[in-house]
Specification:
mainly alpha, 4 helices, 61% helix
Amino acid sequence: MASDHGRTNPDPGMPGRAVNRLRLLDSLIKARSSADRGQADEVLVEANRWLTRYPFDVRVMEARDRLRAVHPVDPEDTKEGNGT
C-alpha cells in the first residue's frame, strides 16, 4: 500500500512504530493504576525492550520510572538482590 510520500509498507497489517509506542505508553499508564504486580512486571519488560531499541525516548522512560515507583523491584526476586 502506497503512503502519501510514495513509500510502501511491506506489511500493511503490521502497526508502525508510533502505534506500538502509543500502545506501550497506554499499557504503562494502565499498569500504574492497577494493583496487579504481574501486569506491571510484563509492561516493565516491554518498556525495557523498547528503550533498548530507542534509548532516547524520554516519554517511555518517564512512564516506566513512574510505574517503577508504584511497583518497585523486589530485591529478593533478582539474582543481583540476594548476592547469588
